[in-house]
Inverse folding.
């Protein structure tokens, strides 16, 4: 049984992750996610992706803790030692999250229910997060079972909301509801209605943006906190020049200068878009 189903909606791909009955992330589901990402990466007609959960009130509950316990027992039996001078290689799930974060296409998380641990780390890897209003929990509570977030949570959350707030949430193992998550900046919006419809609307808007400009902006912002300011500014100047010379940008600037285009919006059927 497939754990992830996909549906095309124009230039947007909707990927729905189920894995019943609990909605865990596991090896089979991450393998299917890898296949979906391969499709997105190689299909130029896919400009944006929406990820959501297929179970009621579950986005991705968390990574299967049974699998993690087995891993822990195996490593302990082998008497291995770990230190940060020798990095552990990425797992397939780590690779998937890195690809989502770095792929030059937009990813929107339509969080329709519980997303903790590895499930919330999937949402953190996306570019934009929308959460359905309701009685469920988001966060990185791994410390409550003796662990730490292991799929990017400590790094991406700190970059998203700042070191102090990330420490407060992760050290305490706190989970929050969607409304509070929006106040903390964990998600961009808490949606009272259909979160998938809202996410698709955002994704279609992103898909209508000039793809090169979107890819460059994502690359610059994603790397903003991991390199010196001077280096980031130099990259920004260089990629600005790469976008300003594109035919699409020239046509849209000409339309703006002629009074035919509003810089605040991008009409989907703009005759000046080439």
């Amino acid at each position: 049984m497939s754990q992830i189903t996909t549906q095309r909606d124009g230039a947007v791909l909707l990927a729905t992750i189920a894995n019943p009955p609990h909605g865990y992330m596991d090896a089979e589901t991450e393998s299917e996610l890898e296949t979906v990402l391969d499709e997105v990466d190689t299909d130029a007609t896919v400009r944006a992706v929406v990820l959501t959960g297929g179970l009621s009130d579950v986005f991705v509950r968390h990574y299967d803790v049974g699998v993690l316990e087995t891993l822990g027992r195996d490593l302990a039996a082998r008497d291995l030692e770990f230190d940060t001078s020798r990095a552990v290689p990425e797992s397939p799930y780590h690779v998937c999250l890195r690809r989502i974060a770095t792929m030059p296409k937009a990813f929107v998380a339509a969080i329709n229910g519980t997303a903790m641990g590895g499930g919330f780390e999937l949402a953190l890897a996306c570019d934009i997060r929308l959460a359905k209003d309701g009685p469920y929990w988001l966060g990185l509570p791994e410390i409550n079972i003796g662990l730490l977030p292991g799929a990017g949570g400590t790094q991406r959350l700190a970059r998203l909301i700042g070191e102090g707030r990330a420490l407060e949430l992760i050290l305490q193992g706190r989970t929050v509801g969607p409304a509070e998550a929006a106040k903390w900046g964990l998600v961009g919006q808490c949606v009272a209605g259909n979160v998938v419809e809202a996410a698709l609307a955002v994704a279609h808007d992103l898909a209508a943006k000039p793809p090169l400009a979107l890819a460059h902006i994502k690359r610059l912002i994603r790397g903003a906190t991991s390199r010196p300011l001077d280096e980031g500014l130099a990259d920004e100047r260089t990629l600005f020049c790469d976008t300003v010379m594109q035919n699409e940008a020239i046509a849209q600037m000409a339309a703006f200068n002629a009074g035919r285009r509003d810089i605040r919006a991008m009409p989907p059927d703009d005759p000046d878009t080439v």
